[in-house]
Amino acid sequence: MTTVSPLLTVRGLHVTFPGRHGAPPSRAVDGVDLTVRPGEIVALVGESGCGKSTLARSLLGLVRPAAGRIEFAGRPLEYRSRALKAHRRRVQLVLQDPSGSLNPRHTVYEAVAEGLRVHGYAGDEKEAVTGALARAGLRPAERFLPRHPHELSGGQRQRVVIAGALVLSPDLLVADEPVASLDASVRGEILALLLRLRTELGLAALVVTHDLGLAWNAADRVAVMYLGRIVETGRVEQVLAAPRHPYTRALLSVLPDTPGDPVVLSGEPPDPSRVPSGCRFRPRCPVLASGAADRAGVADRCRTEDPALADGGGGVDVACHWAARA
């Protein structure tokens, strides 16, 4: 069996920001390993403030890491302006709020053509723009070219943003909460679009979201992030059907039609400038609070040792002392 080499590889990535008023640095991304293969959709899931968006921006070179390595198509990401420009042609970012991504004074044509002009496209610009709009589901494309963002629905604006990314024929889309601001009926259309683009173009995507339901419906693999680190990752049907990490279980418990009572986590996620000792999930962990970790003989390790991602069986990696023993 031939193993496909990853399109994107992240190893030991750390991104820090200076603390305010003498506080320690904020460890926004704190040792992340991640891969995305060609044509694969990976969902990066977690609560707000866990470092998902910072990680996404670091993949485009918009945030420079303090340590670690990002490789794309087997080559390390370089931070020279020419190298970054070439990288961003192949890796495109789609943001949550389409209204904020589009200049209200620009027509749809100008919005989609902007990337072509930045990168010095030498072909037929109008043909490239109309083709990208059609691939994004705006047909007939010519009808949308003269319109301004205020003349479009929220779903149409998001499709224009996606067309602006597709016009450069990238290999990877990094989509940061791409449906969070859309109505429920439109979310399904955008997710179906991502799946169709993967099928028709072989496009890979890293979809950043707090919504596990989105991950279930759109992704091939899921990576669950907590306080700057991936705590569970694997095939989406394996992770979401039988989650190992207590944090993943808590996130899943609030989805509709999930058996059992919702798991209510105590408190808020800790400040990333003050990551707890031992397991970073320890202060909110229901397994530790219930005594289950004591009964499994791992409570002391939970309090003193930060677990690394390890094989949890069935192709799932999990960073949890209790899950490794369960």
TrEMBL record:
> What superkingdom does the record give?
Bacteria
GO aspect biological process, one term: peptide transport
- Which InterPro entries does the entry link to? AAA+_ATPase, ABC_transp_ATP-bind, ABC_transporter-like_ATP-bd, ABC_transporter-like_CS, Oligopep_ABC_C, P-loop_NTPase
Q: What is this protein called?
A: Peptide ABC transporter ATP-binding protein
Domain ABC transporter residues, every copy = 10-252
Q: Which UniProt keywords apply?
A: ATP-binding, Nucleotide-binding, Transport
Matching SUPFAM superfamilies: P-loop containing nucleoside triphosphate hydrolases
